[in-house]
Amino acid sequence: MSVVSSPTPSSPIRSLRRYTRILASLFCLLAIAVGTGIGALGISPSAQLSILAESIGLDSFATYHDPIQATVLKAIRLPRVVLGLLVGACLSVAGVLMQALFRNPLASPQLIGVSGGAALAAGVVIALLPGEVTSGTYGAWVLPAGAFLGALAVSLITLRVGHRGGTPDVVSLLLAGVAINALTGAGLGLLVFVADDAQLRSLTFWSLGSLGSATWTVVGTLAVATSLLLFFAWRNRLSFDLLLLGHEDAHHLGVPVATLQRRMVLVTAVAVGSAVAFTGIIGFVGLVVPHLCRLLVGPTHQHLIPLSALVGGSLLIFADTGARTIVAPAELPLGVLTTLLGAPFFLVLLARARKFA
Known about the structure:
- The protein has one domain (85-356): ABC transporter involved in vitamin B12 uptake, BtuC.
- Strand 1 (163-164) and strand 2 (167-168) form a beta hairpin.
- Helix 3 (67-102) crosses helix 13 (285-297).
- It has helices at 11-37, 45-55, 67-102, 114-128, 131-134, 139-161, 170-194, 197-208, 216-235, 237-243, 247-252, 257-279, 285-297, 301-325, 334-356; strands spanning 163-164, 167-168.
- A two-stranded antiparallel sheet has the order 1-2.
- The longest helix is centred in the N-terminal third of the chain and has 36 residues, at 67-102.
- 76% of the residues lie in helices and 1% in strands.
- The chain contains 15 helices and two strands.
- By secondary structure, the protein is mainly α.
């Protein structure tokens, strides 16, 4: 007599996660198509495919398209969309790491002072450095380099102050991050006070966030930092799961907790510092996206990390498309738009979680 095995209880969950990944991938492709197609010059999906086919040498698949459309797509739209995808993935996965580190779904990369350090350093570059430095041959890289070094330096200080007994302590890290964020905010306020009108306008525009600096060189630079973050996150996904059990339990199960904590802070600082350096401060992506993805696939990092990367990149592309088209020909600050959309959405998530708790 043959015995038909019944499906395991986890089969529906595995199916749901698989469909969620497929939908997230399709959502990402839709975001790319929308981001590259919508603007002052519309580019249809067929024209996009034709331009891409011609670019890789498949002339037989290339139909007619306007040469101006090809220039706009390859030199402006596509770098901007790819940069948005990288920045969104970077901020979202960094949020996953910070929430695993602090064992709190309300944690974000801002807690370790990345954004505050970058903003302070950007203020120093804009308000204090002479114009010859920022307008020379490599002047376009001075501000991003300064912001990156500021983010990294402040994160290292937070990590150092957050040590307790020679190892990082979560509570100490949190308190150190709060205090250092306050200090960087005060320092930025002083720089705003001494800056002239032009410097103040530049600093304000940078701090509000934008993908307007997108070039293929910038995309390549940020791709390295984002790849480092994704590789580190995926390699340590099982250790992050064990961290959720508690640091003592994770240590007894073989996780080098202190070393892992230090690496989590450093990798997050490098990746998010790189993103913030080129785009300015973009709020709520690293907080809302991991929280939303956790509701969809659960806390297991094997599923949470790739989904957060896809959803974060896709949402940032959609937000940037809205930022440059809602009030065209002007452009809304991207960081303002993500905060306006993310804060109410996060409040709704919190209300729903409290209702069903």
